[in-house]
Amino acid sequence: MRPSTFKRNLLATNIAILLGSAMSMSAVAEEVQEDNIEKIEVRGMRASLKASVNEKRFANSVVDAVTAEDIGKFPDGDVGESLGRIPGVSVNRQFGQGSQVSIRGASSRLTRTLLNGHSVASTGWYDQQEIDRSFNYSLLPPEMVGAIIVHKSSTADLPEGGVGGTVIVETRKPLELEANTVFLSAKGDYGTISEETDPEFSGLYSWANEDESFGFLVSAAASETNYQRNGIESLVGWGDIVPSTFEQERERTALNAAFQYRPTDNLSFGLNLMSLDMKANNANTSLFVMFPDDKDAACEQRNASGTCTFYRRDGQGQNPGWAQTWARQASMDSNTVDFDFEYEADNFTLEGRVGNTKSEGGTDLTSNYGFWLGTAADYAGTYDATGDVIKIDVANKNFTADDFGGPLSPAGWSLKKQPNSDEETYAQFDVTIPVELGAITSFKTGARYADHDVTQLTLPANLVDGVEGKDASAYYSGQVSSGAGYTLPKPNLDAMLGDAHAAIDSFSTDGAVYKSGYGTINEKNLALYLMANFESEGIRGNFGLRYISTDAESDYYALQSDGSYADNISTNKASYDDVLPSLNVIFDVADDVIIRTSASQVISRPNYADMFASSALVGYADGTAGNEVLNTGNVGLLPYKATQADVGVEWYFSPDGLASATYFIKDISSFVTTDQILNQEIGIIDPDSGADDWTVSSRTNGTGGVIKGIELQLQDAFDNGFGYSANYTFADSDAPAENYPDAVSVFSDSSKHTVNLVGFYEMEDFTARVAYNWRSEYMIRELPFFYGNREHEAYGTLDLSASYNITDWIGVTFEVVNLLEEDSIQKGIAPSSAEVKPELKDGYPAWSFEGEARYQLGVNLRF
Description:
By secondary structure, the protein is mostly beta strands. It is 8% helix and 55% strand. The protein has seven helices and 45 strands. A hairpin with a 6-residue loop joins β17 (381-384) and β18 (391-394).
């Protein structure tokens, strides 16, 4: 018997046993009456806690929730950070915001995000990160969110795609609010590294007619953030140690319009329009500080891979440092139109939705300004990479534009744009039929169809004639702090982008660079399901089957044996289908005690970046020698697939109180991984290195791997105004080391230990909260892109928030994020034999970034 057949038979046996237990009980018990479920108008921390507890308690699957404390007031100033308070959920904060989440030890790529139950398109703004299926939560202002539901177990009617879990973001609806509800908010946001105070604004208005048959809601949010990330990056193949400063001008705007119409009591229509936009222009200034004439003589200590970890330079007769600024004009947006309806007849309920979601993003322009900085004597001293963070002790760390060597102009080889697009048109219809068939109370069936298109392009620039260099003062003014205690010339981003545009005549849609970066994916997904809901005395739940079918194709220019690209576009096609069973059984063993069990098979489709059939030349002519990668995708990849189960005990010892313990296991039978071979000749000479020396990277399906663990949760609130919430997650992630180029045997994004501690006080007009989130080390995998695969050290943040209602309709708020300014430290932990860059091996301190605290002070009006 094949392993996959055995797993399916084992799952079917478990379903039959549990279902038989349910069916053997007495006939159908009375349905839970609406007045047995406490309905709460969410106002304040305690009410939010109670609403989240109720969402979990009465769900017929394994869920957790975060509920807004009031209109326009989510528990955190960042949606991703709020998700990180949930047991089993971990947050990735690569650029100072909670942009991606992982659930129960599975990668963030395996988290499915839905907006009001439907897909939401999303692209990235950074050309060093791949296009994936995860939603970038930094796009979504928390003021627009009413609640977030995290599904950790599967049901047949839940859209497939979340091996880790499915996150459903729920926005406000007009008929859920009082007519003429108004909310306005203004905040100032200060960063301790950027030392800038930035504005944030949001507002909401909701209206309904007198009989509440029609209503509309409009909400908007806008913010400007000057984000700065100082750190030390490593590039052993060229500059070794690189103090860096990443500066970004973020401009985020969001608009939402929702309409509801109920012509009769049993018929309703809804229309939701959502527009999310972020301008993300950025300047990344780096100083390559190590260019000794004789590296071997300057090296005093090496690690197991032979990589030098301690240099000493005497400053005599050696090169100065090389500095460069990457100036990028970047953006991303997401626009959604969603129409839904519901008709409730005497013997069935029909629901449906159709819509379109589209996102465009990427770099609208990339440019590079490079120059020698200072003299060799400035760099005399020691460079110590023996610890977790590189230490640099040299003669001079303070530079201005006067220290430049020669005129500057945008490097012609760097000028390009890399736009991405992501679009889905979808339709879904569901029918629920009440029945009296033993313990079965209803059948639910439906279909969902989605047509998805993704495109990536690289468009190199054709230059105008006679681009002249300018004095450094044209592009740099003043100074900016950087990593390792350096102070560098501060780039003038507008001037750099302006002159970069002026140097461009047009963008090429031909040639090797364009053809290697061209790729499209069309994916057609069909899902059919049948689910039964059952309930009897002391037991309730659901079971069902979901059938999925996928047809995918990718257009590309084929790389030929001589290193050139074909003139005509080729297309690769692939398809797969599967049947996914699911079962959820809840035993109400006492009025306040629940035993919750589930078992299912789940999938997550491969990332789009892995499916592009094109052979992309990553790092080609990017000004950094030794960074060249031939990256080839595979449209025929099978999805990630897991057989999962969990069992938990929940004790609801008070209206606000919950104590629970859950054991979970995910047996992952198939997932997508990267094969990588270093130092290969492919027939293409890189102009920076002058060599045909490439890392060849390709995508394939891996097999095996198990994630298992426990979740512990305890929370309560007291009459004296105090309350708390605490949870701990243990996730033991075991993946075959041979499935990763880094040969590290853990799944990506998986922390073994995650802890959340929240304490709050709420009484009358004043509330205060302190929250601590900590996760143990985890692997970040971004090969074949620049940052590669590395381990992020344990990371913890302390956040504070407080609010005071001056009157019934005016309030003030104060928030602090990352009060302790926790640093982000990332090490290369691959063994010496791994096919990865030297800085990603044997504990080398690959990257480290200084932590920033952000302070917010705001005022809001609600009436």
